[in-house]
Amino acid sequence: MEINIWGMIGLYGGVIGGLLGWWFGRQKARKNRGLDELYYHIWQKARSYSWYVTLGALYVFFTLLNFGIELSTAMVKMYPIR
Question: What pTM was computed for the model?
Answer without folding.
Answer: 0.70
